[in-house]
Design goal:
- The complex is a heterodimer of chains A (504) and B (436).
- Chain A has 504 residues and is an alpha/beta fold.
- Chain A folds into two domains: 233 residues, 3-Layer(aba) Sandwich (Rossmann fold); 166 residues, P-loop containing nucleotide triphosphate hydrolases (Rossmann fold, 3-Layer(aba) Sandwich), CATH 3.40.50.300.
- Chain A has 17 helices and 22 strands.
- Chain A has a six-stranded mixed beta sheet, with helices on both faces. In chain A, strands 16-19-20-13-21-22 form a six-stranded mixed beta sheet, with helices on both faces. A four-stranded antiparallel beta sheet of chain A has the order 2-1-4-5, with helices on one face.
- In chain A, a hairpin with a 2-residue loop joins β21 and β22.
- The longest helix of chain A is centred in the middle third of the chain and has 16 residues.
- Chain B has 436 residues and is mainly alpha-helical.
- Chain B has two domains: 105 residues, no CATH class; 271 residues, no CATH class.
- Helices cover 66% and strands 4% of the residues of chain B.
- Chain B contains 16 helices and five strands.
- In chain B, α5 packs antiparallel against α6, α6 packs antiparallel against α13 and α11 packs across α13.
- Chains A and B meet through α2, β12 and β22 of A and α11 and α12 of B.
- Bound molecules: adenosine-5'-triphosphate and magnesium ion (MG).
- The site of adenosine-5'-triphosphate (ATP) has 20 residues of chain A, from β2, α1 and α14.
- Chain A: Keywords: ATP-binding, Cell membrane, Membrane, Nucleotide-binding, Repeat, Translocase, Transport.
- Chain A: This is ABC transporter ATP-binding protein.
Chain lengths: 504, 436
């Protein structure tokens, strides 16, 4: 089905998120939308999906003007969408989530769960996902939740499919699989809109590329364009795609983790006897496929896990058994992997979010009351420094574009007096320009003599930042290797094999 | 560096190790009750015998009375309670030999047995030297619980769709009033029943309109509605109903309709199956709401809207209409509970006759963790505790009635705090959905 957007304009108050955008997606085409954080990509797709009403412009399918009052209308017209922020009900099972909105019923109006299970299995098998239809979605790791979103969109046989940053939480293998699926769907005649910040993916699957900046279409690019050309078109300036960094000059050991176990609510050891050391002025990357205990490991260091054995100490001070607040006070900065769930309070303003974990003492609080002038000054400064694109510092964080939300979390955690920085998926969902900035800041943090832990499923990021790399598999550390270890070795280690020359 | 992979590379453990998590909540709670048992049944044990009357004269099958000597029974019960506690402790410390499932079953069975024994011990002790009419005790439980159950079902539906329903009290009261008035005027209890449902729906309309359309805080609207309905019905009661009580406030009651065969079962029959239409409707409502919520399209969509309205919106479910109509439905169900007051237990309306039942229903919703069946049991527990106090008061027991009055609430606090565990309501309950 041919999709055409003509002159779409969407305003939020004074902000014009989409400014007369024209876009044509031909049947059997993968059309990539590129653009910085806050450029208006998600907004445009939400207009297409009927979630937002455009202020101007029209949507045409196969030449006919459409009028969507809500997503129901859009879906009936054959439009499907994989949302950037999961639109899944956490307490429902996978099958229930997939069937929601177009439920099949059997005798007496009872839900036909078997049919839904079958549908989930069918799609999982067809595309090589392994998803248990009866798992509760909230218990699944984000990577699997993402697949559920995809299954949900596919289960409706959409003829126009929008993927809004589906790969942000996928592993490289999963991404490759997804791209294969997209090609398969394209060859069956589906029109696909694909939004991503990862240039490698763009060049791999795109048939056409449209770049959006500040709500306007700024140009088209050929899939053969080089990474740096694409990046420059997106951001409007030249971008360094590789972090410049000096050889690390590690100081004494600072963070010492000894025989750490983490036991989950089902009694499984999700982290099993993990020991490692991070030196001052060193970046240790924790690599591994999503869901191999990395999340739980970082949470255990923060004091967020209830059942932990073993010992964690920072500069001689024992952290195990301390409350989260004490751990923060000890100078640990933490960027959680799930920003919407653990990183931000969506209803609070950017400024309030920026001081969230320092709301009990100087400089933001004096004699029990907030010092708002100080907070505002600080927030303005951080907004500028981290290039947070928002109308003002009093915008609720939930209104920000995905990448800008991530920048708020980073700004908060990296602006404290740090003795250790733990960043889980720090550049998830942010654009190339901001990745450059964040990577630079991490290296600066390291060079200031602070131990840094980066947890990333992104091999590019691991290789770019790490001085040493610890690979986790099934809750254990397979091995700790130097930062220049070849990718294929890392890849094998991520699958649980221990190269003979790598000591455990 | 150049690490090569050799075929005999050592794979790291393939499955995750598992360990045991122990919770000491249950054993500690049981131990506390054992201490209470020792003090009441043994140290403060009473002499005499307690008679449990299992049948009344009108029953077809007559069961013999059960006579238990108070002190020996108390001691036996205490010993058994202690043994059960030991079992639960053993289960907690060295349960590894049993599968998790078997352990949970044994634990649940032990707690049920414990509760039953404790109750038996308590009744024997409290009624020493007197007789307890078991059927009467249970029958009273059902009548006191019926409006609570309807109210709780209304609460469950409303909260599951995302609107906090503090107005249950108002819906019950409005239902009771309209049922009395309309049934008196028409002389037909069925018309009264319909009127009660309409009254409940009208209260819901106000709640829904203000909270969904005008985004007023749902708790505040609910509280205001309760006060409004109380004021309005009291006013109309003294200005209209009392003017001509015979014509306007003498409702025909539903007759008791014993269900053949079932009503002849000893104990259970007279309690459950020698009831009026409203109570039978209640059984149907509990089952219908349960099946509806968890096994139909209606329920799936309703719960989706209460959990994550935005996600529901993205699959084409219209959030606010769904909320509006289901809150109205909740009002109709709660209205039926109101009708129970005036068309079943008594045949006339009295000022503030619901006396806070709506709030207890609200507690039952939470105690029952937003599940219609559990909420029903919670409501029954409240009804039982209240009726226990009536019965023991009538036969004269050593427990001060003020203490017995506290019982339902003490039980709730204990249950919610300890035994039930973490109770989580629908995620979007109380939050209006605003589209951009
Ligand atoms: N509901 C809303 N109310 C007000 N402003 C909004 C709303 N949704 C988005 N915006 C603003 O519109 C702009 C475009 O946001 P959008 O989410 O479309 O960006 P994006 O291109 O998807 O970015 P990202 O790559 O970070 O996901 C941003 O400045 C954002 O703050
Ligand atoms: Mg976006």
């Amino acid at each position: 089905m041919q999709l055409e957007l003509r002159g779409i304009t969407k305003r939020f108050g004074a902000l014009t998120a989409n400014d007369h955008i024209d876009l044509v997606v031909a049947p059997g085409e993968i059309h990539c939308l590129l653009g910085e954080n806050g450029a208006g990509k998600s907004t445009l797709m939400n207009v297409l999906y009927g979630l937002y009403q455009a202020d101007e412009g029209e949507i045409l399918l196969d030449g006919a003007v459409q009028h969507f009052d809500g997503p129901g209308d859009a879906m009936r017209s054959g439009i499907g969408m994989v949302h950037q922020h999961f639109m899944l009900i956490p307490v429902f099972t996978v099958a229930e989530n997939v069937m929601l909105g177009h439920e099949q019923t059997s005798f007496g109006g009872r839900l036909d769960l078997d049919a839904a299970r079958k549908r989930v299995r069918e799609i999982s098998d067809r595309f090589g996902f392994s998803v248990d239809p009866d798992a509760i979605v909230g218990d699944l790791p984000v990577g699997v939740q993402q697949r559920v979103e995809i299954i949900k969109a596919l289960s409706r046989d959409a003829r126009v499919l929008v993927f809004d940053e589906p790969t942000a939480v996928l592993t490289p293998q999963e991404t490759d699989e997804l791209m294969a699926i997209m090609r398969q769907l394209r060859d069956e005649g589906t029109s696909i809109v694909f939004i991503t910040h990862k240039l490698r993916e763009v060049r791999e699957v795109a048939d056409r590329i449209t770049v959006i900046r500040l709500g306007k279409v700024v140009g088209e690019a050929a899939p053969t364009a080089s990474n740096s050309d694409l990046a420059a078109l997106m951001v409007g300036r030249a971008v360094e795609l590789v972090v410049q960094k000096q050889q690390a000059r590690p100081g004494p050991a600072s963070l010492v983790v000894e025989n750490l176990d983490v036991i989950d609510p089902n009694g499984l050891k999700v982290v099993n006897d993990v020991s490692f050391t991070v030196h001052e002025g060193e970046i240790l990357a924790i690599a591994g496929v999503q869901g191999n205990g990395q999340t739980e490991l970082t949470e255990a260091i923060m004091g967020l896990q209830p059942r932990v054995n073993g010992r964690v100490s920072l500069g001689g001070q024992v952290l195990t058994g301390l409350s989260v607040r004490r751990v923060l006070d000890a100078g640990v900065g933490f960027v959680p992997e799930d920003r919407t769930e653990d990183g931000l309070v969506a209803e609070m303003t950017i400024a309030e979010n920026l001081m969230l974990d320092r709301s009990h003492s100087e400089p933001f609080v004096a004699r029990g009351s907030l010092r708002l002038e100080h907070l505002d000054g600080f927030a303005e400064e951080k907004k500028k420094e981290f290039d947070i694109r928002a109308q003002s510092i009093s915008t609720p964080a939930g209104r920000l574009s995905g990448g800008n939300q991530q920048k708020v979390v980073l700004a908060r955690e990296m602006s404290r007096d740090l003795r250790l920085l733990i960043a889980a998926q720090p550049t998830r969902g942010i654009d190339v320009g901001s990745i450059e900035f964040v990577h630079k800041r991490m290296v600066e943090t390291r060079d200031a003599g602070i131990p840094v832990i980066v947890v990333s499923t992104e091999l590019d990021e691991v290789v770019a930042l790490a001085d040493r790399i610890a690979v986790m598999y099934r809750g254990s550390i397979v091995g700790i290797v130097p930062g220049d270890t070849p990718r294929d070795v890392l890849g094998l280690m991520m699958a649980g094999e221990r190269p003979s020359e790598v000591a455990a | 560096m150049s690490a090569t992979i050799t075929p005999d590379a050592t794979p790291v453990s393939v499955t995750l190790e598992s360990t045991e998590i122990r919770s000491w909540k249950a054993p500690i709670a049981l131990a506390v009750f054992v201490v209470v048992a020792v003090v009441l049944f043994v140290v403060l044990g009473r002499d005499g015998a307690t008679t449990f009357r299992l049948s009344s004269d009108s029953d077809v099958v007559q069961l013999a009375d059960w006579v238990l000597p108070a002190r020996p029974t108390g001691i036996t019960v205490t010993v058994l309670l202690a043994l059960l506690t030991v079992v639960v402790v053993a289960l907690t410390t060295m349960g590894n030999r049993l599968s998790a499932r078997a352990r949970r079953m044994v634990l649940a069975a032990s707690i049920v047995a414990f509760t039953f024994l404790f109750l038996l011990g308590f009744l024997t002790w409290a009624a020493a030297g007197a007789a307890i009419p078991v059927t009467g005790l249970l029958l009273g439980t059902v009548s006191l619980s019926a409006p609570l159950i309807f109210g709780a079902l209304g609460g469950v539906i409303s909260e599951r769709v995302g609107v906090v329903n503090v107005a249950i009290e108002g819906q019950l009261l409005a239902g009771a009033f309209c049922a009395a008035l309309v049934a008196s005027v028409t002389g037909n209890p069925f018309v009264g029943l319909v009127a009660a449902m309409i009254a409940g729906v009208l209260v819901s309309f106000v709640l829904a309109a203000f909270s969904i359309k005008y985004l007023v805080d749902q708790v505040i609207v609910g509280v205001v509605l309760n006060v409004l309905v109380l004021g309005l019905t009291s006013f109309l009661y003294s200005t209209v109903l009392s003017v001509d009580t015979a014509a306007l406030n003498t409702a025909p009651r539903f007759p008791r309709f014993p269900i053949p065969v079932l009503s002849d079962i000893p104990v259970i029959g007279p309690v459950l199956f020698r009831q009026t239409l409203i109570v039978y409707l209640m059984y149907i409502a509990v089952v219908a709401v349960y099946i509806g919520l968890f096994h139909t399209k209606w329920g799936l969509r309703l719960r989706a809207v209460g959990e994550h309205p935005q996600a529901a919106d993205t699959v084409g479910i219209r959030v606010n209409p769904t909320r509006f109509w289901n809150v109205s439905l909740a009002g109709a169900v709660a209205g039926l509970g109101g009708a129970y007051f005036t068309l079943d237990s008594v045949s006339s309306f009295g000022k503030d006759m619901t006396a806070g039942a709506g709030f207890i229903a609200l507690a039952a919703v939470i105690f029952g963790r937003w599940n219609p069946v559990r909420a029903t049991f919670a409501a029954l527990l409240f009804g039982f505790a209240t009726n226990l106090q009536n019965v023991l008061g009538a036969i004269g027991s050593p427990v001060p009635s003020e203490f017995m009055l506290m019982l339902p609430y003490v039980v709730t606090v204990l249950a919610v705090a300890g035994l039930v565990g973490y109770a989580r309501g629908p995620a979007a309950s109380g939050k209006p959905y605003i589209k951009s």
